[in-house]
Amino acid sequence: MSETTAERDLLAQVARVRSRFHGALFGLAVGEALSAPAIYGRPGAFPPVRDLLGGGPLDLPRGAWAAHMSLALGAARSLLEIGRSDPEDQRERWRRWQREGEGSATGECLGISASVARALVDGVPDPSLFDAADAPARVAPFAMRYLDDREALRSAVRESATVTCHEPQTFTATRAFADMMQVALRGAAPTVILASGDDLRSAAWDGSSRPAAVLSAVVQGFSVGVGFKDTVLRAVNLGGPADAVGALSGQLAGAHYGLEAIPAAWVAAIAHRSMIADLADALLAEALVGLVDPA
Question: Which CATH class is domain 14-291?
Answer without folding.
Answer: mainly alpha
